[in-house]
Amino acid sequence: MALRLKADQVLLLLLVFVPITLVLEYVVHASATTLFLTSAVAIVPLAGIMGKSTEMLAEHVGAGLGGLLNATFGNAAELIIAIFALRAGLHDLVKASLTGSIIGNILLIFGLSALLGGLKFRTQTFNRTAAKLGSTLLLLSAVGLVIPSLLYYLRDGAEAGTAAATAAGSGSGWLSLEISVVLIVCYVLSLVFALRTHAELYQGTAHAGGEAHAAPAWSKGKSFAVLVGAAALVGWMSEILVGGAEEAAHALGMTEVFVGVIVVALVGNAAEHSTAVLVALRNKMDLSIQIAVGSSLQIALLIAPLLVFLSYAIGPQPIDLVFSPLEVVAVAVSVLVVGQIADDGKTHWMEGVLLLAVYVLLGLAFFNLPG
């Protein structure tokens, strides 16, 4: 509980960057790099507030609908950032942020959870069936990324780049639409499985010293109002962040892909990431892995396909599911590693180290990727 209070206090302190960013944007007219950095920090507490308000709202409506709310709003900050990047035509940034969210959740966050939880508890267990299903769904999402990318590079050659493939009516564009339908259908059915037919697999394992269930701290009206307000501010900050992304990347010596994979992905997921680590420290690894793997599944099976459809309505041109070879490899490797860890239904601190090592190696690869 003390850790939770400290995390909430840090988030509240970071809220000061919201007015700071607005002053820098509309009064001082600061540089794009400065605005990118301050807006990125401002989004972190706002995303945390969105997560808390969703959690409070879920407690009012029951486990089934509450789970659906968490699934719907769990990645709202990432979706909002991606929508503004999509409107600006920054397709590489959008795809990189999707890749970064997937690998960040299952490598960095699950890795930190396993490491810190494992240092406190010798071995932590979780439901093997639920975890294996999650890793299998992640494998499906990896296949959904590999197929259009593989066909594109086999047909057009890697030297053609990915930009030409986003033209309306292209073969990869139609294939991406068809694959998006399949991914969304699988996501909806996975919700039915988790919330209705096999809900018992996701209830978590009872541990000694568990906390008693308390009444929701916020009313339903307050929870909804805070959620809407935080979402609006995230949208405002996201517009500023995206506006300075390209210039900031060049000024800081980073490629647009690295900014998307590492920086933007961490900004959108930071608050949710802290929750996964905190529950692991309370020996609730079931919940921790549900947050980490479940968030990656939402990105891969819902957010990415949804952005493909939205791009036809709000983007300067449609986006597809053709990712760079390194992005495809990063997702595939991450999924395979997590599948190995989830196989026995338990974790220890060394497995956390291995997951973090893979994340660092991939981060170095993206940092050294030619611009």
Describe the structure.
- With 371 residues, this protein is an all-alpha fold.
- 78% of the residues lie in helices and 1% in strands.
- It has 14 helices and 2 strands.
- The chain has helices at residues 2-14, 17-28, 32-61, 63-73, 76-87, 91-120, 128-156, 171-197, 220-243, 245-251, 256-281, 285-314, 325-342, 349-367; strands spanning 124-125, 346-347.
- A two-stranded antiparallel ribbon has the order 1-2.
- Helix 13 runs antiparallel to helix 14.
- The longest helix has 30 residues, at 32-61.
- Residues 158-169 and 205-212 have low confidence and may be disordered.
Task: Give a quick set of tags describing it.
371 residues; two-stranded antiparallel sheet; 2 strands
Largest sheet, in brief, is: 2 strands, antiparallel
Rg of Cα set: 20 Å
* CA distance, first residue to last residue: 45 Å
Global shape: globular
Structure described in brief:
The chain is mostly helical and about 375 residues long. The protein is built from 14 helices and two strands.
What is the secondary structure topology, with strand pairs?
Layout: H1 2-14, H2 17-28, H3 32-61, H4 63-73, H5 76-87, H6 91-120, E1 124-125, H7 128-156, H8 171-197, H9 220-243, H10 245-251, H11 256-281, H12 285-314, H13 325-342, E2 346-347, H14 349-367
Antiparallel strand pairs: 1-2
Helix pairs in contact: 1-3, 1-11, 2-3, 3-4, 3-9, 3-10, 3-11, 5-6, 5-9, 5-11, 5-12, 6-11, 6-12, 6-13, 6-14, 7-8, 7-12, 7-13, 8-12, 11-12, 13-14
